[in-house]
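Q: Joint fold for the lines below.
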Amino acid sequence: MTIPESTAAAGAGPDVSRIPDPHRPGVLARLRDRRVSGWLFLLPLIAFNLFVVLVPSTFSVWYSFTDWTGISSKAKFIGLENYRNLFRDPEFVQGLEHNVLWTLFFLIVPMAMGLFGAYALSRIRRFRLLFRTLYFIPYIVASVVNASIWRSILDPQNGLGDLLHINPLGDQHLALWSVEFVNNWAWWGFLVVVFLAAMQGVNPSLYEAATMDGAGATRQFFAVTLPAIRPTFAFLGLMTIIWSFLAFDYVYILTQGGPAGSTDLLSTVAYRNAFSNLQGGYASATGIVMALISGVVVTVYLVIRKTREWET
Amino acid sequence: MATISRRQLLGAGGALGAMALLSACGSTDPGGSDDAITIWNNLADAQQNDYFRKHFAEGYRGKYPVRFSPKADSTIDRLIQTALAAGSGPSVIATPGPSSFVSSYWSAGYLADLGPYMRHYGWTDKFAPWALSASQVDGKLVTLPASYETMVFYWNPATLHKLGLAPPKTLEEFENFCSEAKGKGHVPLSAGNADYKGANEWFVGLGLNHGAGPEAVHSALRGETKWTDPVFVDAIDRLASYFKKGWFGGGVDLYFTNNFPTIYQHLASGKAAGMLSGTWDFSNLGSYFGKAAGNDATWDWTTVPSLGKSVPQTVWDLAIGQSIGINTNFRDTAAAADYLNFLTTDLKTIIAGVERMNFEPPPIHISATDFSTKADPRIVRLYSQLSAAKSIGYTTWTFFPQQTETYMIDYFENVITGRLSAKAYCEGIESRFSRERAEGRVPAAPKPGGGLS
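A: Joint structure:
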């Protein structure tokens, strides 16, 4: 950096206020700063999230306190009436019960299948990739395709239902379990892949030590594998609970909540209230309750993770 | 040189991003198009879509061209609701009859008042009065009936010949028909709701109109009789008992899993003795009978039998299958009204659509002489008899308010599965109906003996 000649010749001395501080970077330099450029890259995402998540969420909270129809721009504030009505509504209560059953099923059955499937795969060397791919395929097939295929398979007149003399989707006592079974078929392969990836990160010396101590495969699974992948296990458990309260597609495609509401979940009840009964405010209140349940679960998970010092 | 702080930079970037997103998502033309009339419709298949596009969209010669966009049956209502709420949507708004959404769309300001065009186009002379009457909200004509339909009893002549049965006319004949068909190992009535849960209301409507009788239903629609009256409770109880006996679809659980192809195949193959359904099935049965299906099966129809002791043998359940109105966001209401007039009253185009595609016509005056010699005689017979009908019934999707209709669909499943008594079901109807009636949401219904014209 040089001082302009004319200024020096005039003997007035340089105007220090106009001299760039060599220790203070310019705008371009600051843009190149890793922290600023990081924020710049995040900007579109933040703007997008603000627009598609925060704005609708805020509206949804507001509408849950109104009598909004879901199609009109008019909405009258009615306080907590929607929330009070929710817990008196047998459809909501039934949907909540089914969601709890759904969550328990997905916390137990696919998690157990995923764990044992991954553990079995981790102990073989040949065809591991093939099996992993085979397990994963149902997860990437569209739910509408999966559900349609299973509807045909379970058909009580031409499919498995005929063979077993049952009507899995038509019997009100079997329908919820049948839908869960179909959804699980598409889901558990994903868990296998994630658990397998976590298991492959376990230090092999732990297994060697366990083997030297005389531990068999089962003992190794419970004493080495499971503790080592606990953060992954806990995270997938958390996500399972959240996703279970958001479940909709398989139920809607297979049974539309029937027969006689026996497969209704909170999501299908909310959908019906929003689009068939035109009770958008009431449906919003259902959605807020669903979000609150997920929020509580996430908070509990974060507290446990912090107190137990789990790593992700 | 002026510098900007990190906070300012972030703020400016965020604002720009938000503006860009808003610009991208916002619609500059909420009516769908400035230079064309747009219409969304849910037709049965690609062939019907092509025909509609050619003859009912491109065939229209008006101020604006018409752009037709086919939509799936299961999603069209949701798409229209969402589009309207977002300030957009097609120029012509279609609903599945006056019960569904019309009142709410009108209250929300999405539907234009068609009253000013009624005299200009002479709609009062062209349409059946009951249909125009049911299309009014708050005393204003807000939609036009684009199609009408009724419930009938379908049968396969070869099957009934083999079983030695005839289509039933009375309650006693109906019960004998079902008992005998079931006794001989057949499904008495092909039915199911796996593809369309709304099928429940077809049967509830039959139970009320043919079991309790149109006089009682009309009285209840006017608020003079309660839905908890024993005449309705008994009718629903009797209907539910038929389901529990397996007369509809072969069993309650099978009713929930029978899809449309299964239902039609059962009728065509002779597994089912008959079928109670709407005249919209005229267009669906073709693929399962005769040459198209590779068999020699045929079908025929007759009126729905009486399901109550003091109910007339012939009752025509009136239904508007589709209502159409004009989106207030479309700037030229008069031009859209002209297109509505074409869609619903151009007899030549309408009759050709009925003959070639089995489209349901609007409830305008149609006689047997309007059809060509190529027309299916079953269709000619239907519309000739309907025009002369004197005893009419009231379908739920035309004469009942929205939330009552939804309840009737959803909770009928609880009745046939034994989770809810007929009495409790009727109490649920009454509580919803009385509230919606007080809100002025019940479409106008013609008198039961008034006929169609």
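Q: Anything notable?
A: Confidence is low (pLDDT under 50) at residues 1-13 of chain A. Residues 69 and 277 of chain A are 8 Å apart (CA to CA).
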